[in-house]
Amino acid sequence: MIRKLIIILLSLTVVIFGSDGAMDLLEKVNQIIADFKSERQIDARETVFAVRADMQDSKIVLRGEISKIELKNDLLLKIADALKVEPQDRLTVLPDPSLGEKIYGIVKVPVINLMDGPRKTSQKNAVTQARMGELVTILKQSDEWYLVQMEDSYLGWVEGKNLHITDKTGLNDYLAHKFVLVTSKFAVIFKSMDEHDQLQEKLVQGTVLPYLKTDGEWTLAQLPDSERIYLRTSNLEFFNSRAEVFSIKKGANYVINVAKQHLGLPYLWAGTTSFGFDCSGFTQFCFKMAGYFLRRDADMQFNQGKVIEDRSNLLPGDLVFFQTYKPGPSHVGIYIGGMKYIHSGSNGVAINSFDPTSSDYSESLDRKYIGARRIIGGE
Which of 191, 236, 242, 318 is most buried, with most CB under 10 Å away? Predict the structure, then answer.
């Protein structure tokens, strides 16, 4: 009864005060939505939060898309508490119900770009990359393109032909295998146990795939679409399950050794693989190979780990940050000791120094240094 009276009073307010009153109310609701987004630090790179309010039949209606049902529920409660009336919920919670049960994707090509919109193919529109065997959650579809969320929570659009799309049962069947991790920079794919029977495509370091058996120098692996291939055993590390692959923390020296394998590799916008890295894709990858989780972009990584106030206290494996083309942390590298750091910059993967007397000193980056974070031992 009380709720009905509140709704009637709200309706009367709109009638009495006309469109101006309705507009004021609508403005208040949209401000609540904006404040909620800010308070929860919702980042469009990791969370879909496209929410708007309008008036219909003198009632507040929420429309749009949101990728976390708990955010939707909390937002509805916040608006109801502020206005003393519940808004009508017309929000779509992703994954979009029209997708049915097939909301899981497994990357089935060696490397794919995730784009900032559907039907975009230019590298400048890429936001990140994924390797063969990486898992994504499909959120919605636009023609043959899908908005997906990677395991690091990053969002992007991919063409459907590059994914093996399945349901929960299919995903569980895929995960029921033992797995291999490609530890070499590249691994050649073979059709049989014959070194002359190789395919043109190569797998990149960090690729994780099911395997069926090993036979000396050869390992029989399975692609996401169930095709079987052979890989050289020397390029692989073996695990009883996919969950074990990056579960062991291997320390700063391992991170640095992985990084040094890529010295001289050209810079690639949005790159996260042995074909090319951007700065934060490089740090994220090197740490992942050693069992540490970093978020995708430099400003996100700046919010992880322990703050190192004094540069004289840096330890090998610390992340060092720089303010370059925009305010705030926009470039990141890995401190390797001796006043030196390794990073993927405009000249590709290189080592530079904070020491003005060193031959690899970068005065520009030295001036742009803004701080460091300790991930290893700084949890």
Answer: 318
